[in-house]
Write a structure and sequence with these properties.
By secondary structure, the chain is α+β, with helices and mostly antiparallel strands. Helix content is about 45%, strand content about 20%. Strands 1, 2, 3, 4, 5, 6, 7, 8, 9, 10 and 11 form an eleven-stranded mixed beta sheet that branches. It is elongated and about 95 Å long.
Length: about 375
């Protein structure tokens, strides 16, 4: 019963801490799954004096920045929407993204089948071609390679499928299943309506701070924007790492969750420590006899430490099981897309290493020196303790 109580208390603490670390590692710490993802940034506008913290790009600002900047390899834009697949079979609502041709090259994404969007696709007359996700290709078309060139009916409009994206690609949202090519046309002078989201790939050696300064110098050069308007609102471009931009809504809740898990771990350790101390007190007579028979304090402490490590090891195994269950149930418990990068959470090497390290730490933290072992190897009173 003692072992069960200690293992249960520690397993709860280890499971909470390791699950939180697994979430933080996959969502916040792990780089985005794109080549050289540290060079990917999100471009937005802020106007502190007007209470605007993260406005998008207008067609005018996007085209102006893309043409005149000196710090980006390329800048792309996208819009998100929801449409219905209305061809044969039951209608199906799917999430779509309208992306400029440069978005896939910025992300360094190569289609699994077919070809990526080009400027010619964006400039062509008629319905824009589309690319579909690997999941939709498998589910609706049975993984048929001949899907390239076929049409898909979206909102009663026939569109040609020109590509299938690789497994795991889900930008800008895990629920996105169809991508349209987007042609951005100039909309006249001034900032216009900021309806576009924009991403960019920095040139080698460029920093987000240098890119923001570059765009700040370009902002005043957009035709039709009165300088007084910019100063009155405090308008300025912002350039933020794409990873931070994607998780900004969940960063604070995850940090709060981390502190909560650490509190659970501390309480679990306190409960386990109390149980170990109570048990050690009950065996003080046995310890005194062993000391009188020649056992040193180091010998006894080693035995208690070994017991603690075994208890912590059992708790670590149970805690890893809790982490595995939490990881597997995450996509079921939460609505897809409600937590960015949730589908990337898994019990990887970093999570296992954290769980093992935490288990060893707990084994060393629990009390390992029994009563009466403070001296160098002689009984406390120099004689056997008699009943």
């Amino acid at each position: 019963m003692f072992a069960v109580a200690v293992v249960a208390a520690l397993a709860l603490g280890v499971g909470a801490a390791a699950t939180t670390f697994t979430l933080l590692n996959a969502i916040i710490l792990r780089p985005l799954p794109y080549p050289e993802s540290d060079r990917l940034v999100a471009l937005r506008h802020a106007a502190p004096r007007l209470g605007v913290g993260a406005a998008g790009q207008s067609a005018t600002s996007y085209l102006h920045y893309r043409e005149h900047n000196r710090t980006f390899e390329d800048i792309g834009a996208y819009i998100e929407n929801v449409v219905s697949i209305t061809e044969d079979g039951d209608p199906e609502r799917v999430r779509v993204a309208l992306v400029t041709p440069g978005v896939f090259s910025i992300l360094r994404v190569v289609p699994h089948l077919g070809v990526p969007f080009t400027a010619a696709h964006a400039a062509a007359d008629g319905p824009a071609p589309v690319m579909i996700s690997h999941g939709l290709w498998q589910r609706r078309y049975g993984g048929d390679p001949a899907v390239i060139g076929r049409t898909i009916e979206l909102n009663r409009t026939q569109r040609e499928i020109i590509g299938v994206l690789p497994p795991g690609f889900d930008f800008p949202d895990p629920r996105t299943q169809v991508w349209y090519v987007l042609a951005v046309e100039p909309e006249g002078a001034g900032l216009g309506e900021p309806y576009l989201s924009a991403i960019g790939r920095l040139r080698r050696g460029a920093t987000p701070e240098a890119a923001a300064l570059d765009l700040q110098q370009l902002l005043g050069g957009i035709p039709g924007i009165p300088p007084d308007l910019l100063r009155a609102g405090g308008w300025r471009p912002t350039v933020e790492p794409l990873r931070a931009a994607l998780i900004e809504d969940v960063r604070k809740p995850l940090v709060i969750l981390l502190f909560t898990a650490l509190l659970v771990l501390v309480l679990a350790c306190a409960n386990a420590t109390n149980l170990v101390l109570v048990r050690a007190g009950r065996y003080s007579h046995e310890v005194a006899v062993e000391r009188a028979l020649g056992a040193s304090g180091r010998d006894l402490a080693s035995r208690f430490l070994t017991e603690n490590v075994l208890l912590a090891g059992a708790a670590g195994v149970a805690g890893a099981g809790l982490v595995y269950a939490a990881v597997r149930s995450g996509p079921v418990l939460f609505e897809p897309g409600s937590i960015p990068r949730l589908h990337e959470v898994d019990l990887d090497g970093a999570a296992i290493a954290f769980t093992v390290g935490l288990t060893l730490l707990l084994g060393g933290v629990l009390p390992s020196r029994p009563p009466g072992t403070a001296d160098s190897g002689r009984p406390r009173d120099g004689r056997l303790v008699q009943d």
